[in-house]
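We modelled the chain as a single entity of 435 amino acids. Its sequence is:
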Amino acid sequence: MNTIIFHTQYRVVLQITGIVLLLVILCSQSAVSQTKFIKYDLNPVLIAGPTGSWDENVDGIYGCSVIYHNSKYHMWYGGYKGNVGAIGYAYSDDGTSWTKYSGNPVFTPGAAGDFDAGIGGCFVLFNSGKFHMYYNGTNTGTTRIGYAYSVDGIQWTKHPTYVFEKGAVGAWDEKNIAIGSVIKEDSVLKMFYTGKSTTSSWFTGFATSPDSIHWTRPDSGNPVLGGGVMGAWDQYSQNSGTVLKNGSLFEMWYDNQQQAPYCIGYAHSTDGGLNWITHKDNPIIKGDAGTWDAGFTIYPMVVKRPDGRYLLYYTGVNGEWTTQSIGLAIEDTTLTKTGNYKFENPSSFVLAQNYPNPFNPTTTIEYQVPKQSLIALKVFDLLGREIATLVNEEKETGRYSVQFSMSKYQVSSGVYFYCLQAGQHSAVRKMLLVR
């Protein structure tokens, strides 16, 4: 690799390397955080069905599990008719406009004496050619977690009994539990669930399984999120919503449902989900007065778009707490509310933030030049050493996209910089590689 020569166009890179220590400190609060979202301007994206339908209760549609698979978005959501709850299915090409399956509901309660005589929320994971559903089954006031699988997401085969239940007497989760999310790491399934004792509020716990059927709680460490600091918005309740694995980084979006206002926050973990750091700017999603979600925002469900950006689905209720619906927020303040990337001015010089970020090993860098220029786009490490030259040629006026992969470079996880030079214009942004 070549060391940077003190050319004027790269001086900004060298200036940044002088504050390396500050960047390392800030990294855990900014570079790893997917916390900036814009609510979709056509919210809500899913509402209760018409009178007579299985999901007709306007105060009963709630929660959802969303995945992107085979070029489509798939959603499983809860609904009620009277006091009977079930799970329906919807699909979308873009994640914003949803079509409910005509044969809904696709998942219904068991018989009166079964552990799942009542059905609550669910989480769906696609793994090894099948959809795997982990769901809340309730009977006589007790919730247990059940399991089912499907090849198409519509026809489900239930495991004959529950696969996870509340903790032993005296445990932090001795009273009740509920599913949060499940991820697969190598050959191990990791479940993040909510639980409560007879005296405490809902907190987040952790368990593992080799097969979705047999689950083991760790001997120590639970709950992994046990309440925020005194006086904080999440002091009394931290309920796991979605956990995503991004390289060695675990990201969690969670809610509080003990003390109003009920909002959504973000946390991250670098040790496999055992210890979490909550974000300094929490909560990141909350209700807006006078709107459809003024009452609360809960049940965060986050999925990545094909371009690496995040979509955050959530349940909201109006200010009178009478009508629940499912809404959407889209990552990054550089997005329009309808989800399309925009540059501030078509005639301006722009170097956009790479996405995804953090990344492993591939990311995309977008830039715009207002007039024909000699373009140089390069990647540097924290010491100012050049890692790669991505562009070094004349470019016409326009917007460009470059895909960059670290796979062929012998480099470690950490912060890197990419620098764009176009005529007299230059800009630098940082990105985080997480292996």
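As a brief sanity check on the tokenised model: Residues 20-27 form the longest helix (8 residues). Residues 37-331 form a domain with the Tachylectin-2; Chain A fold (CATH 2.115.10.20).
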